[in-house]
């Protein structure tokens, strides 16, 4: 059974305008997948549908064998913790330290204090920010802010980590560092899905590339060198 499956998914925000048109793909546990396509292609919509922030007009989405349309409100928090997400604009709390930005996501679900003390340094070390734990976001570079957001996304040990244009606001060298961290996380067993319009990043790696154009899946191949 694939970990994620989109089956003939069509999405309209405005009736009659398909922003996703009959999109089908599946992703196995442990894969590293790029979703690439120009701005407006429908990449973020795929992510919103998977998170069930939006619902499709037709088609089904399965996560670990379950049709996500059937997840009940009670089950939703558990479902959402299985999928960590990082965004282009980091979404950090500016008044909190790096440590607290990560810890707070565990505190809000009443995690055990001892667990928090173990997990936070662990994930900060994974993204290479242990020595910046007491910094505030304003004292960080763009790449360091995104690494903080990745650490926060990892705090709940998600099955899948999604990066939505995660390198959109940072320079090429820092972007490469972000991708290296995502590869490391992937090598530890987490599925990674990276949505990007940045052809340079995709070309550097030999990963599976799902290409979206005007709401349609136009190719799904392994390897770089595809044009967005
Ligand atoms: P991408 O992430 O590839 O840039 P999006 O999934 O954000 O693309 O957007 C796909 C299309 O859907 C675009 O034409 C966008 O304008 C449209 N769209 C996205 N969100 C909404 C919304 N809430 N209401 C209406 N149209 C939307």
Can you characterise this structure?
The protein is of the alpha/beta class and 228 residues long. Helix content is 32%, strand content 28%. Strand 7, helix 6 (172-187) and strand 8 (191-196) form a beta-alpha-beta unit. It starts with a strand and ends in a 6-residue tail after the last strand. The mean pLDDT is 95. It binds adenosine-5'-diphosphate (ADP). Adenosine-5'-diphosphate binds next to strand 1 and helix 1.
Count every beta strand, where a strand is a DSSP E run of 2 or more residues. 10
Helix count from the secondary structure assignment: 7
Mean pLDDT score: 95
How are strands sequenced across the largest beta sheet? 6-7-8-3-9-10
How much of the residues is beta strand, in percent? Answer: 25-35%
Order of helices and strands: EEEHEEHEHHHEHEHEE
Class of secondary structure makeup: alpha/beta
Binned, the helix content reads 25-40%
**Bound chemical compounds:** adenosine-5'-diphosphate
CA-CA gap between termini: 30 Å
Rg: 17 Å
Query: Could you say which overall geometry the principal axes of the C-alpha atoms support?
Result: globular
Question: What is the strand and helix layout of this fold?
Answer:
Elements: E1 4-14, E2 17-27, E3 32-36, H1 43-50, E4 58-63, E5 66-67, H2 76-81, E6 83-87, H3 98-107, H4 113-126, H5 142-154, E7 160-164, H6 172-187, E8 191-196, H7 199-204, E9 208-213, E10 216-222
Parallel strand pairs: 3-8, 3-9, 6-7, 7-8
Antiparallel strand pairs: 1-2, 1-4, 4-5, 9-10
Helix pairs in contact: 3-4, 3-5, 4-5, 5-6
The chain binds adenosine-5'-diphosphate (ADP).
